[in-house]
UniProtKB/TrEMBL annotation:
It comes from the Eukaryota. It comes from Adiantum capillus-veneris (Maidenhair fern). InterPro entries: AB_hydrolase_1 (IPR000073), AB_hydrolase_fold (IPR029058), Hydrolase_4 (IPR022742), MAG_DAG_Lipase (IPR051044). Residues 51-291 form the Serine aminopeptidase S33 domain. This is Serine aminopeptidase S33 domain-containing protein.
């Protein structure tokens, strides 16, 4: 079901939405996708001209959605010639589910994966290389997607993925244990300590204000079940990342307070894949592509583009 949003607030200002996308050289489309666990709000960003050379499915981070500044990432992919897609994860943005609540992290991943597989297997993109991209919690969810179904994916890219929670950010085991005694009743409660994630994630104060103004951003305290599931996600990744066989790219700042860069190093070291790349950016924060200086953002995007273009050209050469 196609959607339009009339007179909606946007981070780029008063320019009508279609005109903004036109100025970026992309065509945007919004739809809902029905899954067994609820409807997902989805978007696509296609190159306005030229042939599509590949497909990228992008997953946002905790509390965010696909429509605010996160979409700068799929827009960049579309500008490079790729058909980019994203969904708001369950409990985020305009998708169904209690806002900010992750009931089951593997169900969260598989639900978005259902949409991405519908894109991957679409006849319109037959023969083209297909990639996954995930940022922050979306990076962890993306790795779970690869573990759930790696067939047909030519690589996965990760920006500041949450594979390991830094010690100061780890949820209190005492709190989780205590709330766990309430037979699941406390799981949706928004009572966990708030660590001011936007300030910790973003180095550029001006960009931080824009990110924080997202009208669909989850602003409540972390929910008990969400923090329990994020811890579980990291445990699963650390135990199973050796199973990863597809090409992977890790992008991570060394001053990331929200997702330890050591987690990216660990996954790169353990993964079975023969094509593993990690880029560590000295002094950069968690939000590499939306929250750093323009110079730093350009550097990260250049590394991202070089990696995907190289692997896309290999796929094209092998199928000709």
């Amino acid at each position: 079901m196609a959607m339009t949003d009339a007179a909606e607030l946007n981070f780029w200002g008063d320019l009508p939405e279609n005109e903004y996308y036109r100025s970026q050289g992309v065509v945007n489309k919004k739809e809902y996708f029905t899954t067994p666990y609820g409807k997902l709000f989805t978007q696509s960003w296609l190159p306005a001209s030229g042939e599509v050379k590949g497909v990228v499915c992008c997953t946002h981070g905790y509390g965010s959605d696909s429509n605010w500044m996160f979409q700068k990432i799929p827009i960049a992919f579309a500008q490079w010639g790729y058909a980019a897609f994203a969904s708001d994860m369950l409990g985020h943005g305009r998708s169904e589910g209690l806002h900010g609540y992750v009931e089951d992290i593997e169900k969260l991943a598989s639900t978005s994966l259902d949409f991405y597989k519908s894109v991957r297997d679409c006849n319109s993109y037959a023969g083209l290389p297909k990639f996954l991209f995930g940022e922050s919690m979306g990076g962890g969810a993306t790795l779970l997607m690869v573990l759930q179904d790696s067939r047909g994916w030519d690589g996965a890219m990760f920006s500041a993925p949450l594979f390991e929670i830094p010690e100061p950010m780890k949820p209190s085991r005492i709190h989780l244990f205590g709330y766990g005694l309430l037979f699941g009743l406390a799981e949706p409660w928004a009572v966990m300590p708030d660590s001011n994630m936007v300030k910790r994630a973003v180095k550029d104060p001006g960009k931080g204000k824009v990110i924080g103004s997202n009208p669909r951003r989850y602003r409540g305290r972390p929910r008990v079940g969400t923090m329990r599931q994020l811890s579980r996600m990291c445990d699963v990744i650390q135990k199973r990342c050796h199973e990863i066989e597809i090409p992977i790219l890790m992008l991570h700042g060394t001053s990331d307070d929200l997702a330890a860069h050591e987690g990216s190093q660990m996954v790169c070291e353990k993964a079975k894949s023969s094509d593993k790349t990690i880029k560590l950016y000295d002094g950069m924060y968690h939000s590499l592509i939306q929250g750093e200086s323009d110079e730093n953002i350009a550097r990260v995007l250049a590394d991202l583009r070089e990696w995907i273009d190289e692997r896309s050209s290999k796929k094209t050469c092998n199928t000709e």
